Every structure is written in C-alpha cells, then in structure tokens.
Amino acid sequence: MTVALGTYGIWRHAGGLTPDLAREIEALGFGAIWIGGSPLGDLALAESLLDATDGIAVATGIVNMWKTPAEEVAASYHRIEARHPGRFLLGVGIGHPEATSDYTRPYATIVDYLDALDTADVPVQGRALAALGPKVLKLSAERTAGAHPYLTTPEHTREAREILGAGVLLAPEHKVVVDTDPQRARATGRPFVHKPYLGLRNYTSNLLRLGWTEDDIADGGSDRLIDALVAHGDAGAVAARLAEHVDAGADHVCAQVLTEGFAEPLPPMRALAEALELS
C-alpha cells in the first residue's frame, strides 16, 4: 500500500525534530514529516515521531546507502511498519561523492541496495529514492514508489514527471523563508544552499543541466538562483511557489522552513499552513 503523504509536508533536519514539534506539524494539517540529514538506520527518530502523532506520515529524506546496510534498515522498517502500518516511507539515497571516500559505482550500488531491500521484503511501495538525473529518476520509477528530488525547481519537477510517467510518486523538497524583505530572506536562505550543496557535483550538475550557469553557482549562488531555490515573501507568495511544483506534476511537496538565526519555526509554519488552506 502506498503511504498517504498528502499534498504538502515539512522537511526538517533530524537534529531539529522532536515529538512535540511533530505533534504541532500534524495539528497544522501537513501530511508528512520528512527527516533530513541522513538519519540513522535504526530509524529510532522516525519511530518516536510516529509514536507521538496520530496519523501523519513520516519519511526519511534520506537514509544514506553508504552509512547503513540494507539489512539493518530493512529490520528497522519492519519494526516500524508493524507498529505503525502504512505511515512510514523509507527514503534512501546514494549521498554525495565528496562525503564518501569509497564512492565508486554509484548506480550499481543503488541497484544492489534495492536488491537487498527486495530480499528483506521491504515493499516497493514502502520506499522512495533520492533522484535528480534522468537515469536514477527512471530507476526510482522501476524499483520504488517514486522519487524524492532535493534542491530543485518546478522546472525540474516538470521534467521529472515526464521521465517518471503517471502514477509514480514525485515528492520534491523546496526551501522557504516567510519574510517579505528580499535581502533579508536571501541572507537567511543562502547559507542553506551554498554549503554544502553548491560544492557537491550531483547538485551543481543538475542545476547546470537545468540551464543555470557556472556564474550562478559561484560565490554562494546568484540572487536569481537563490530566489529560484528558496521561496520567499509573505506566506501567500511562498504557498504559490510550492503550488508551482504541484502544477508541474508533483504529488507531494515538502517545505524546508528556514528562519533567521534559527528562530522558532512554528510561526512561519502556521502562516504557511494557513496560506495553503491545510485546515
């Protein structure tokens, strides 16, 4: 059974997620919580968020294949599925070559990992794959419920939908800053784009493939690039930007809500939920 994610969710680094925040996110009407930052394969955090909530889905964005053997994460998946059936989506991915010393044969490694998940009876519809380029997007459609692209634009979403075809999950992440001052909003969002992502070739290659230039990527990203990757403005403007992904073919969009100086995220989450008419 495919996990029901709703149309909009929240993506947040594992270090910034707590059961209390999960309850608040659920109460706002978001359909899913995505655990970012390569969460541990024991999936203890996912289990604690599910334990604390009533019906919201929880997904990993993503468990790194290099860090956790498929057999270990499969055992964690089955433990969680038994406790919270139909509420957990296992997002897995290959990570970044710059972060892994033995990063060789990445595509073959993904295939081998998915083969191991098959052997461990993790269902296709219970897992998703981090995917940016055409080859891995196609693989996500063939071997998982679908794709979870990160650091993308609605233009990428449109291309991804054409590659995936109909009936395959497409759940992009998009960063947001609810702030009507463009300079301040860019100052809040740029660090979350610049480091590490503009130094990682899987992301920069994808941006170049989408038509951005080396100049756009240099020096922390041009204002034009930051504006494309970090939705900002009032909550209505941010909601409209997220809706562009849906119009381009996304089934679900997970918003990474960024705040100046790591301020409390709930106020902009509330404003965004209201603008999205979630409740």
UniProtKB/TrEMBL annotation:
Residues 20-118 form the Luciferase-like domain. One of its GO terms (cellular component) is cytosol. InterPro entries: Bact_Lucif_Oxidored, Lucif-like_OxRdatse_MSMEG_4141, Luciferase-like_dom, Luciferase-like_sf. It comes from the Bacteria. One of its GO terms (molecular function) is oxidoreductase activity, acting on paired donors, with incorporation or reduction of molecular oxygen. This is LLM class F420-dependent oxidoreductase. Pfam families: Bac_luciferase.
